[in-house]
Amino acid sequence: MESILISSCLLGERVRYDGKTALCEHPLIKRWQQQQRLVPICPEMSGGLPCPRPAAEILGGQGDEVLSGETQVKTRQGHDVSNHFLRGAEKALSLCQQHHINIAILKARSPSCGSSNTYNGQFQGTLVDGQGVTAALLKSSGIRLFDENQLPQVEAYLQQLESDPEAGPC
Ligand code: SF4
User: Fold this and answer.
1) What span, in angstroms and rounded, lies between the C-alpha atoms of 80 and 58?
2) What whole-number distance in Å separates Cα of residue 2 and Cα of residue 57?
3) Hey, is 127 helix, strand or coil?
4) Is the torsion defined by CA of 26, 29, 34, 35 positive or negative?
5) Which one of 17, 110, 145 would you pick to mutate in the ligand 1 pocket, going by the greatest count of ligand atoms within 8 A of its CB?
């Protein structure tokens, strides 16, 4: 049975920067929890950041540019927290390798977990196309990314993987 990496805030853990949760109560999440498929991680806390913590954004919004050292993740006050984000991304990847994970459900729009959009680093609520740091590392390692708004697509992909294991991750 395929395991799924999931942002731990979606399971109700109070790990967000503001000390809150982003609990997702969709029945599919409950079913996967009962099946013990879900492997939770908060990359920012795994990378050594506290909770609560200052909000941070990627300058320019591109997690792959943080991975390559071309840009940084900074708080509104200008403190560079890139190393924490990079460490958290590495820990998420190691968890995927340890559990042979091909699928991740990551919280939308986060500078770590966002898989389609992130904020642009200006702290004005402006989204750009791009991935958070963890999302970018997992994607580059062949893990298929979804967010909490794409759970039926996750279910379809799981069925595809489990009926035809040769299909593999794309
Ligand atoms: Fe949730 Fe990811 Fe942010 Fe942690 S880093 S609070 S798991 S979105």
Assistant:
1) 10
2) 32
3) strand
4) positive
5) 110
In this structure, which residue's CA is closest to atom 4 in ligand 1?
Answer: 42
Residue 74 beta carbon below 6 angstroms from any ligand 1 atom: no
Cα gap 85→90, rounded to integer Å: 9
Pocket flag, ligand 1, residue 110 (CB < 6 Å): yes
The verdict on the CB of residue 2 being under 6 Å from ligand 1 is no
pTM score, whole prediction: 0.95
One digit per residue, the tens of pLDDT, for the chain of length 170 reads: 999 999 999 999 999 999 999 999 999 999 999 999 999 999 999 999 999 999 999 999 999 999 999 999 999 999 999 999 999 999 999 999 999 999 999 999 999 999 999 999 999 999 999 999 999 999 999 999 999 999 999 999 999 998 876 665 44
The tokens for 135 are 């999302």
Residue 14 Cα to ligand 1 middle (Å): 9
Does 7 sit in the ligand 1 pocket, CB within 6 Å?
A: yes
